[in-house]
Design goal:
The protein is of the alpha/beta class and 355 residues long. It contains 16 helices and eight strands. Strands 1-2-3-4-5-6-7-8 form an eight-stranded parallel beta sheet. Helix 11 links the parallel strand 6 and strand 7. Helix 1 packs across helix 15 and helix 4 crosses helix 5. Bound molecules: N6-methyladenosine-5'-monophosphate. N6-methyladenosine-5'-monophosphate (6MZ) binds next to strand 3.
Length: 355
């Protein structure tokens, strides 16, 4: 279940720990609340999907452009991703591989297993996972079918271990955003385990004023709301204010909030989903010394430690906690009781299942 490559900063932090420290982190109940399905498919599984895709008769697979076909071939050969641009460049290929229900189910199952099944050491990466994914319409499925396919896999686990967040991509048309939110609400009302709605994708894209009614609808139906916000330095302050006006329960990244935004976030105790490796690798935060996690830790503000995308960032939830524990410069050097408090806050920021 843990057949997944860990490298770079996360690996160094993990390797620096004493066996007793590692045992402490493994035993700690941890919630993963910010993991994107298509960014979290373990590489061996992605490679198998690429082999299956290339071996299938051409008339049964979607037509691919040369660039996407080259991407699939690179995945099959076991590409090593060194830069975030390479990851986003491979997305069309990853999407081609998860564009039909059986392959999407395989991918979802592998991501769930990575986080929730015990590894060789008997420990699971996470006690609880809120997996998120953007519904896609393809030749082989509708968006509703996409959500149901992922839900079928999520619901193989008990409710106290796994749930689904439906992501809206900023590039979606308002009509598609509406379709996704309505499908999420309908499934929740039918007793399915959709717990929230997310906003993700290119932070520069889209007009979020047009999404406002759908966020309101989601909240009215009891769904949790989490928004990627201010993850890049030139994120306009008025866009931050607009997103906060939707009264989100949690925020993704929130790297560049100004003082007025921070004040609102404190007032509402909005949980911040912190993705340390992701921020360092994407270079939105140059160094751990200046990471905004320090600001929230000092104020005892609710945060959750998350992986974001384990494929490109080559991290794991355990490794992110290792970064909290490792002494500087590899990590933040938090004490065991401080880390325990962080993990507890994360568990408390879970969205509520339907009653
Ligand atoms: C913003 C991100 C992201 O939904 O197809 N995604 N959006 N910032 C990030 N930080 C680096 N990482 C991933 O998973 C892939 C999608 O998640 C979003 C992107 O929209 C990406 O297309 P799903 O399962």
């Amino acid at each position: 279940a843990h057949d997944h490559l860990i490298a770079g900063h996360a690996a160094d932090a993990l390797a620096s720990l004493a066996p007793a420290q590692l045992a402490f982190l493994k035993a700690l109940p941890k919630a993963e609340l910010h993991a994107h399905l298509n960014g979290s498919i373990p590489l061996p599984v992605l490679q198998q999907l690429a082999r299956d895709f290339l071996a299938a008769p051409a008339e049964t697979t979607p037509a691919l452009s040369d660039a996407v076909r080259a991407g699939v071939a690179r995945l099959q050969q076991g590409v090593v991703l060194n830069q975030i641009d390479e990851f986003f460049g491979l997305f069309p290929a990853i999407y081609a591989l998860t564009s039909a229900p059986p392959a999407l189910a395989t991918a979802a199952r592998a991501v769930l297993a990575h986080f929730l099944d015990p590894g060789a050491d008997g420990a699971a990466q996470a006690a609880y996972l809120e997996l998120r994914s953007t519904p896609r319409e393809t030749e082989a499925m509708t968006r509703a079918r996409y959500i149901e396919t992922v839900l079928d896999e999520v619901e193989r686990y008990p409710a106290e271990r796994a749930a689904l967040i439906v992501s809206l991509d900023r590039r979606m048309s308002p009509a598609v955003a509406q379709e996704c939110v309505e499908a999420a609400i309908k499934l929740r009302k039918a007793g399915r385990r959709v717990v929230g709605v997310d906003l993700c994708g290119d932070p520069r894209a889209g007009n979020m004023a047009l999404f406002a009614p759908y966020f309101a609808k989601a909240k009215a139906a009891g769904l949790g709301l989490t928004l990627h916000i201010a993850e890049i330095e030139d994120f306009p302050p008025e866009e931050t204010r607009r997103l906060l006006s939707f009264r989100p329960d949690r925020l993704g990244h929130a790297t560049f909030l100004d003082e007025a935004a921070k004040k609102l976030v404190h007032e509402h105790k909005t949980c911040i989903e912190i993705c340390l490796s992701s921020n360092l690798i994407c270079k939105t935060v140059p160094h751990l010394d200046v990471h905004h996690i320090r600001y929230y830790l000092r104020r005892n503000h609710p945060i959750n430690i998350c992986t974001d995308d384990i494929l490109p960032f080559r991290n794991s939830l355990l490794a992110e906690y290792a970064i909290l524990m490792a002494p500087p410069p590899l990590g933040l050097g938090l004490t065991e009781s401080e880390i325990e408090a962080v993990a507890r806050m994360g568990m408390e920021c879970r969205f509520r299942p339907a009653v």
